Structure formats: structure tokens, C-alpha cells
Amino acid sequence: MFVIPGNHDHGGPLGLWEQPFFQSERASLAPNLRILLSCEPVDLDDAVLLPCPLMRRHESSDLTAWLRSIEEDLAPFGKKARIAIAHGSVQSFAAPVDEEEGGGAPNQIDLDRLDDSSFDYIALGDWHGMKQVGSKAWYSGTPELDRFPKGEEYAGGHVLVVQAGRGAAPVVHPVNTSRLGWHAIDHQFTSDDGLDQLDQHLNDLLGTRVGKDLVHLTLSGSLGMAAMKRLDGMLEALDARLLRVKAYNAVTVAPSETEIVAMTARSQDPLISRVASILMDRLDDTTDTELVRAALRELYAAVV
Fold it and tell me: Any bridge partners for residue 108, and if so which?
């Protein structure tokens, strides 16, 4: 097994790969793991690897530059498949800005300056989704999804099984390896019946799985008091059951006539009726609408 360091695990002094803990774990769990830390060919039985490791987190120069004039050096390897390995952003496709750094992507790779005929496959890392960026160049992405998908292009959760031969086009087979489900759901309530629709959709999507899914919910529209109470319970149950629930809840309270009467026409509870009437009158007050809605929900849950 061969790997090269990337921007989050660069190969410089005092880096991850030199740590005693890593060395001990590798010897115990993966003695066949080899970290490629220099730009020089690695001769295997059926292929030659051409690593371009990142020795610092940020490189201003293109680390694939040494491959631009390597044809003569590769002659001794005969008909073995030539596989280049690099980490960074290609000129035609830049990875998103690192959320922890706030800057652009400094580790640039210019595939156009490489002689396409000199290589049989170019394995790239950096972009966390699977993507082909050249006739022989692919990002495999991460073997597990690491964020909510932001478009169809973000196809994470795969590894690539590649058949490469000297002078032949590589045959690439994506294999889904993701065990976690990342789901983005946008739901608008037009009536209380929409709650049943959302519940059914979640059941179809999640089944009986526990601790294996993350859900990003965007909710809008309006619900009655009883339905809103039920929605709160659904969200609480999801939060306990799933790895994460990220909810943007913009649902407004729209009490039905029956619910309004149940709170404001309580002859046996005049204080509650008065409080409910005041809250109803202030429901459309733009200065504290959210607070009023929360108060109505709490009042309804307490007395109905």
C-alpha cells in the first residue's frame, strides 16, 4: 500500500509520519503501508509510481514539474504502467477554499504541461469528491462523505479501482465505500398534512438505522399549534437518533380556529384566555414574532 502526504498531513520535519505513535500503529496494523516522501520513481512488479508528495502544507510551485521531462528516465522501466500521484488543485478545476484557512488553494497542478503520452494514469488528491479532470486524471475523493452534498458534482464516498497499462487508456471503476448517509431535505408546509408527508419521507430515507445518518433540514411554510408541537417532537427524536441534525426551521405558527378557541375561550381559566388573546393579537408584530410564536407553543402544550 502506497500513499503520499497531502496538505493536512504534509511530509515535512516533525510531521505526522515521523511521530512515534504513528510509527508504532503502522508497524502493528499496516506493516505494508509505505509513505512516499520523495520525487523519484518507485519500481513495482507491474507499474512504476511517480509520487509528487507535499512536504509543506502550502507549496507555491507545481510539484508535478519534475514529471515534465522524465521520459528519458522512464526508459529503463520498459512497458510497465506509469502512474503519477499528486495532491493539489488542477488549473481547470480548483478545490473549494479550505474552511479552516480562509485562503485560496496554493497547491496548484498544471496538467496541461505534462506529456499525456508519458503517463497511463494520474491519481489526484485534494478535492473530496470523485471527479475526472483529464483523459487520464481523476480525483478519487474521500472514501467517506465528509459534508452535506452541495451539488451533483460532489460525489464523495468512493474509491477508484483502476486498470492501467502502458500506452492504454485507464479503465476506472468507482466503488461506493460510504457507510454514512448525508441527506439534505428541503420541505415546505402548505397544510398540517405536510407533516405526514415529511414523516413518510424521513422513514423511507432512514428506515430503522441509528447513528449512521446526518440530515440537513430546511423547513418553511406554516403549521397549526398541534402540528407544530408534533414537529418539535419529531426533531427531538431525530436529534437523539441520528449522528447530526442541522435544522433551519422557518416554519410559522398558524393556529386553526379550533386551536384559537381552545386557548382564548377558556371560561374556567380566564388568566390563560387573556394571555392567549394578548399573544394572538401580537402574533404579527414584526418586532418579537419569534418570541410570541414560542410562547404560544409553550402555552398550547401546557393547556391542551
Answer: 89
